[in-house]
Inverse folding.
C-alpha cells in the first residue's frame, strides 16, 4: 500500500499570484508526495485546467493535461544525487513544458532541469547561455536563470536555476546526472545538498500559449 507522507490541500486563491509570500503557491497550493517501492512520487498543480497525474506500479506514472494553470509530476528519489537514471515511455506535449530530470539542492538553493524533450521552450526568466558539452548520451546546451522572490522548497526565495537542454529530443534512454553536475561545476555552477529528484513531466501556460495539453506515460527501470 502507498505510504502517504504529505498532502497539502489547495488554498482558496483566485490565482497563484495572489498567494501570500509565506505560503508559496508553486509548492503549497496542491502537492501530493508519496513513497512506493523505493521511489519518491511528487505531484504539484495550480490554477485552472485539467492535470491528471497517476502514480503507477513500480517506477511508472502517467500524466494527461489540458487547459490553463500548470503542473509538475514525476517519480524519482529523495534525496537525489549522482545516478544513472534509465527510463522509457511516451510523451506528446502541445505548448510549454518539459520532460526532464528535475531536482533541487540546498545550501546553495538550486532548482535544476536536465531536459530530454519538449514542444515549446518557454522559460519564465531569461536564460543565460553558459556553454555546450557532448557526452555518450548526447549533445547538450547549458543555461542559467535567476528567480527573484519566487516560491521554492524553502519558501519565497531568490535562487538560481540550472538547465541542460538536449539538442536531439528523445523519450527514453539514460540520464547520468553526475555527468551534468560535473559539467556544471566546470562552468562555475555549483550545487548544494541534494533534496528530491524526479523524472518529471511539466506543463504550464503563458500569454502566448494559454491552453497547453498533452500526455505522457513514463517508466523508470
Amino acid at each position: 500500500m502507498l505510504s502517504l507522507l504529505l498532502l497539502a490541500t489547495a488554498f482558496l486563491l483566485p490565482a497563484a499570484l495572489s498567494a501570500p509570500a509565506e505560503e508559496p503557491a508553486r509548492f503549497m497550493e496542491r502537492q501530493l508526495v508519496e513513497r512506493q517501492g523505493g521511489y519518491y512520487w511528487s505531484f504539484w498543480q495550480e490554477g485552472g485546467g485539467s492535470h491528471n497525474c497517476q502514480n503507477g506500479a513500480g517506477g511508472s506514472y502517467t500524466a494527461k493535461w489540458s487547459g490553463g494553470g500548470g503542473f509538475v509530476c514525476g517519480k524519482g528519489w529523495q534525496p537525489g544525487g549522482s545516478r544513472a537514471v534509465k527510463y522509457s515511455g511516451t510523451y506528446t506535449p502541445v505548448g510549454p513544458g518539459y520532460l526532464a530530470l528535475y531536482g533541487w539542492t540546498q545550501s546553495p538553493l538550486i532548482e535544476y532541469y536536465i531536459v530530454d524533450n519538449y514542444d515549446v521552450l518557454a522559460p519564465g526568466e531569461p536564460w543565460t547561455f553558459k556553454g555546450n558539452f557532448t557526452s555518450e548520451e548526447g549533445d547538450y546546451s547549458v543555461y542559467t536563470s535567476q528567480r527573484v522572490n519566487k516560491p521554492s522548497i524553502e519558501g519565497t526565495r531568490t535562487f538560481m536555476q540550472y538547465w541542460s537542454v538536449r539538442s536531439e529530443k528523445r523519450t527514453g534512454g539514460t540520464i547520468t546526472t553526475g555527468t551534468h553536475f560535473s559539467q556544471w561545476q566546470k562552468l562555475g555552477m555549483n550545487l548544494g545538498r541534494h533534496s528530491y529528484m524526479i523524472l518529471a513531466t511539466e506543463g504550464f501556460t503563458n500569454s502566448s500559449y494559454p491552453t497547453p495539453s498533452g500526455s505522457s506515460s513514463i517508466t523508470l527501470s
Observations:
- The chain has one domain: 3-220.
- The chain has two helices and 15 strands.
